[in-house]
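Posting this for the archive.
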Amino acid sequence: MARKGLLAVLVFLVAISSAYAISPLVIDSEPVKTDIHPSDSAIFKITLINNQNNRDTFALTAPLSTWDISFSDYIVEVPAQSSEEITVRLSPPMQIKDGKYAVFLKAHSTNDPSIKNHEYVHVSVKSPEVIEETEDIREISVTEEASEGLFRKSYSFNITNSGTVLYSDTWEQIVSSFDLSILRSNLDYEFKEYGDDHKISWAIDLEPKETMTITYSISYFPVFLGGILLLLASFLFITNYLNKFSVTKELKKGADSILVSVSIKNRTNTEMKNVKLEDLVPKPLKLVKDFGTVAPSSIINTKNGTKIVWKFDVLAPKEELIINYQVKSSMHVLGNIQLPQARLTQDKNTTYSGNVKIIGK
């Protein structure tokens, strides 16, 4: 009982240590300049921490942003258990609305793309013009979130009307034609061609202080699963409908011997000529020469056992033949004996039966 208790404690400690394992790559950001005008640039210091036991090279990107983003180094080599610091400048797109923005930055290993991490940096954009208190203010604030996995990508945008008047506009994203076909969103959207891709847009109608959330996801798993099922269906079709012959092999144990029955069938609607069936009686089994109505064309003794061959000049359409023979064991069978597959050949067609076993005591 004490040993079982100790084992449970060890399993719990391993689970706890796994749950809190340090990520091989950590991204840390330090703001230098975050409050900017639309024509200005925000500045952040980015620290890449390599927690691996080997030197690695990381690539930095900003795949989900329309901002003009430049890194002091786009490719950074970091020694093992060490860190490197770079600088990133973020310039907002033209005609950006005043508000607070979360910009998505991503880093991944150029040697192992599965080693990756991301960081959001927050920038406040405000126009330098002084707005009269009586003037209508038309602006929104947006926060973005993104998640990327092997089979799924998801994105979320929280949009708040931070102005003083009704805000009516559209929120737009660019996706590929394939991604559009499997895209799912919480809100209705419209789309139109945009070069080789498609532009999707959601309508925005927000009263002052009102917030809406737009989410959409792209899941590749149903496509992957559909491909697997299609391959499986193709395999079953080929094996079950394109084979011109079927061959089955069965055993029936008697008092002193074992009856082996091999059934062959011409599955086509045409005559099949020069059909040959081969079966092997492995050692220590011995062939009993009692073949019923279908005698073999030849019996050949080999080092592995006795080979039996039947030759048929013609099999009529849909014709089925059952070939029987008996075997005995030259010694007492304690384990199981695997009988080889029967093989049917005709021209370039080859068909095998399933495996059967003789189960000993």
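Residues 244-359 form a domain with the Immunoglobulin-like fold (CATH 2.60.40.290). Helices lie at 2-19, 177-181, 221-241.
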